[in-house]
Sequence to fold (569 residues):
Amino acid sequence: MSEAILRVEGLRKVFGQAVAVEEVSFSLPRAGALAVVGESGSGKTTVARMIVGLDRPTAGRVTACGRDRSQPARSARERRRRGGEVQIVFQDPYASLDPRQSPAAAVEEVLRLHTRLDRGRRRARVAELADLVGLDERQMAARPARLSGGQRQRVAIARALAAEPRILILDECVAALDVSIQAQVLNVLSEVRERTGVAYLFISHDLAVVRQVTDDVIVMRHGSVVERGPTGQVLDAPEHPYTRLLRASVPGPGWRPTRRITQQAKQAKETR
Amino acid sequence: MTAVAALLGRGRRSALGALGTTAAAVIVAAVVLAVLGPALSPADPDASDFANAYAPPGPAHPLGFDGQGRDLLARLLTGARTSLLGPLWVVALSMTAGTVIAIVAAWRGGWLDSVVSAALDVVFAFPGVLLAMLVAAVFGPGLSAAVLALSVAYVPYIARLLRSAALAERRKPYVQALEVQGAGSVAICLRHLVPNLMPLIAAQATLFFGYAMVDLAIVSYFGLGVRPPAADWGVMVAGGQSGVLQGYPAESLLAGGCIVVLVVAFNVLGERLSDDSGQSGTSGPSRWWRPGRGGTA
Fold:
């Protein structure tokens, strides 16, 4: 795995008394797609926040594009460079955009930060990115309040891609969207990866989505990694009991809600 | 004036309701009168003619005269200027300082936030009017001393509310996305944080305009703010007292009435704006005319 673009070694995070993340190690190959799955509170998001620098690791190392980023950036230049390496899309599409800024302005702000394009070129690039995520000119000029959740999430993806990152972290980025919109956004993500060669760290609790988007998967529980391997293999033949439990928790065909209350009522009637 | 700016900026008068719109209209009218005051004034506000002392209203002098034979309408109109400019300065100074302190504390967090919060608590302990009188006693009476002292006294109320609002805003993903992009703190604060806090800032400014007006009038009433020969509503309330005893209450009543009407207007409008800005629980010194909101959920 010498050509790993993102490497995480022995990552640990303690909040007060609670250990949120314990000894997490993994690496993400160039243009790869790695899923991190686990239930709420398993430490997935904390790992993501440490990678992008929003939280500081208690111990361990994060290396992106061959450069260490375990310590806070010292200079503005360093901060910008890190921004050009790893980007993130958050879960909540409603709070991900400045309510006073149009999508086009948000993307342009990032371009001003990371590139030396002149105004005309920036506008052309904004249009290009909008096209990549499937938004039209009118939507890019609208106020965020007028956009749907799926549209906003596509804006967030376009804004992240504007920095031309090598790694994109998607933190439950489709969890707040309904199923048909989820499919649209996932298609956008597959296409973006094909066209730009960006690597994905895909954080999710939704195994069906993970299967569709990623090559490899790690399973986290209580802050530690309990299983890892190629996505298909892990999901089809899970070895760890927790992974089996996760898989069994997904409602599939043939699943019927148990009518415990009606049954109890029936029994009560019969015994009377 | 802050209120007017906020109103024009939004262009949504209907959101204020009938009462809020009336309050805004009263404020606009007062501002217009204050600006045009000297031009509209029927006489020289400082020209005194003892032959006219307590003279009743007449066609040339619609409100009559005060105890020193000065035209009351002229003095009210001229007084509007100082009575509005004083609070304007207080609001401008305290809002600027309060906003800067709140955002720096919320953004940096950690020990700086703790130190700032502790310092604000200390200033909290001083009632604004008392501080203003203390400053006036030490540095001599005058409007600027009172304005400065009140501004300092108001900062904790403003900073505390804005700090919690800024903290909530700072945790939102759009701000964190900008941090991950590598944008500078100052740029994020100026371009994103402050504009998104602006509705709340405008609402607070309007409320505190009303408070400042009363507090400055109190200070002037005690002779420690605006100095007596000058026309000011607080000074006029004090100056008219001897008239009240002699059966001529017009000066005190008129000046006091102007203060009450405007303060109520600023309070109503401030409340409407803060309801509108989506932030419940506006802060402010608790006053007899405005008991704390605690209890009413």
In short: The mean pLDDT of chain B is 80. The interface with chain A takes residues 172-174, 176-177, 179-184, 191-192, 195-196 of chain B (CB under 8 Å).
